[in-house]
Amino acid sequence: MNSASSLAVDHLGVQYRMVKALTNVTCSVNSGRLTGIIGPNGAGKSTLLKAMLGLVLPTSGQVMWGDKPLKQQLDRVAYIPQRSQIDWTYPATVWDVVLMGRIRKTGWLKRYSTVSRRLAADALERVGIANLKHRPIGQLSGGQQQRVFLAKALTEEAEIFCLDEPLAGIDKKTEAIVFNILHELAHTGHTVLVVHHDLGQAITNFDDLILLNRELIASGSREDVLTKNNIQRAFGGHVPFFESNAA
């Protein structure tokens, strides 16, 4: 595990043509903690994650991990995009997709090692879909599809895990499995960052939060971020959320 204790986001900004999607975001993402990125629709949650990983080009700022830019260390990152960004008609089985998590360590067009196959099999067991190993991915439910890509991420043996709305449209069983695994990763010292789409009960699973509305509203522990003032600033008006989450 890298000795770096946090991802340092420093004055990160993103602009699409003439529209500022993010302005001057500065925050830290600590290892050993499960961190959620939250905010209203259009707040720039996915944009922040993609800008951190270099998937969209920032107009300002940088992201550091240890003493190097994160974009120079992407071999240490496992990224799970939104399910809507994945081509589910691609002719691949569950096993094919999970093994893709070993390509960086194996190399293209090379045979997967016994270790890689064992890691893939263990990951499928861990997410509870080993029985679907030979199923085409297009025949899976939304929750099963999400578990496939979580298994793929696990096989990468990454140090940083970045997930873009992994809980959208999934069943409660899958949600519980996803959170259990993310907590296990955090507790073993990994850096885990998740874009989350609402303020429902699931938000209590996060240790830390980054609250956005095109700029940083607040970051830190869940208790410190989910204050009525911060929620009002981010969402405006009355936003129903569990009062026990608020300071």
Automatic annotation (TrEMBL):
Record-annotated ABC transporter domain positions: 7-239
GO molecular function annotation: ATP binding; ATP hydrolysis activity
Keywords annotated in UniProt: ATP-binding, Nucleotide-binding, Transport
CDD domains per the UniProt record, alphabetical: ABC_Metallic_Cations
PROSITE patterns linked to this entry: ABC_TRANSPORTER_1, ABC_TRANSPORTER_2
Family: Belongs to the ABC transporter superfamily.
The protein, known as: Manganese ABC transporter ATP-binding protein, putative
Source organism (scientific name): Acaryochloris marina (strain MBIC 11017)
Lineage, highest ranks first: Bacteria, Bacillati, Cyanobacteriota, Cyanophyceae, Acaryochloridales
